[in-house]
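G., the chain you wanted modeled:
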Amino acid sequence: MARRLGAECRDLFSDGQFYVDLRESAGANGPEPAAVLLRLLCEMGVDPEAMPATEAGRERLYRRLTAERKMLVVIDHATFLAQVRGLVPATPDVFLLVVVSGRPLLLEAEHVAVPPLSRRHAKQMVLKTVGRENVRRLGPEMRGLLDRCQGSPLALHVEARLLAGGTSAPGQGTEVWWHHPVHATTERASLRLGPETVRLCRLTALGGWPSISAEIAAATVGGDDEEEAARMLAEAADVGLLELLPDLRYRFRPEIRRHLADTAASASWRTEPDPEPPDALRDESEGIAVLAAEVTNVVHAVSVAEERRQVATALRLARALWPLQLKAGHADEVLSALRVAVRCGEQNRTDERMTGALYFQLAHCLGELHRWEQANRAARTAVAHERAAGHLLGEAPSVELQGLLCMNRWRFQEAHDRFVEAERIYRRIAPGQEGAEDLPRALALVERHRGRALRGLGRLDESRLLLEGAVTFFRQRPEAYNLARTLTDLAETLHDIGDDTAALAKITEAEALLTPAAAPHLRYLATLRRRCETTVR
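Predicted structure as tokens:
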């Protein structure tokens, strides 16, 4: 209906129409307000490089982009007020349409209830769905179809296809669902499927996955036959239980998913143990690409694991998100999973080190979103957990992260002090102790961060010496990412010194080392290159 409104009233919205569907996001309650703004601004064409990190910054940009404009903004499947309150227009020609299933939000807005289709319009929908010839063939069954569907467009669409495909009258036991048209339709569609396919649908619905691949479906039913799972998913889509998405993924309509999940729970459908782990991926970039494609499902899986009291699984899944947030800039997407994970860690104090590591991730994520006070609290908590565990190799990076958070707020002397403290903790690791093999790399990273802090303090020659030492170390190791980041830092210092020719050479080398997955860092290098080239000209 929202899209139909946009099509029919397009002349009223000459500056654009923007549609964001929150159903595709992870989490039972949908994304946070900052993530909603992120998706909307991306729809509006905002370059990722120009995207503000904070919710307040994104809201200010949204208001600048909509000021004195004629636009339609549609937010579909909103679940709580905060998701859309910041989008309420401040200009009369911007029309915000929020689509909610169930009780309306307490928003200062005109509430427009969507009634069932009249019997006449229901007949028209069936006609458009299956064609005039199939409607004639339905004959007397049309009356029963209209009675069952009660004006529900979704039920009408699925039921019409089922009857046009030759399904007979409702099977035994489906009458119990007739009080809810979509539930009745779901049961009728299930009759067209074999028991194993119905089981797969109910178990995947119980998981509540934002999208379902053959791999997820196979694992859900405790097998590894992805071809068979793909066949069953296609069958379920043919009868209307699933929708086909790009890349051979599927998703449920919300009410169909809820009914299948309810019947799965009431029937005590058995969940199988974890399957054997898959073969390793070829390299880091392939791993990050797989994580990026599955991020909404991984985030949701953390909540599912918490709900099922599978604490170890929840913590392990959240830890697996670290490369995605570090190297691919997915802070908005992973934040909710990290909050769930640290809650699990606090409630089940069986592994101080794991809890400390998750607080470290949470602090890093909050820092990327410029939520400085929250990030500092999380970093301090990470230090406390790692210290309680006697884990020097975890305590030192957490102190180091405190320094990075200080540096992001231009507190360079405090940052340098934290880096020096982290170095002292690292040097307490004796030969043969846990972490001794990683010590040279850790010290090189601290050296790099000290060089960055010294640049901020204006001590450029000292900064250059430390960064050149770190570059030399990482050149001798297969760590393209850290070498690229250190080359970037060195290029910044060289630019400040005035040696832009040398800075550009470092930038070129760094760009060649990074994969497309490191998009945020590649964008930063492009900006730094422009600054240096302007000076050279």
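The longest helix spans residues 439-456.

Shout if anything looks off.
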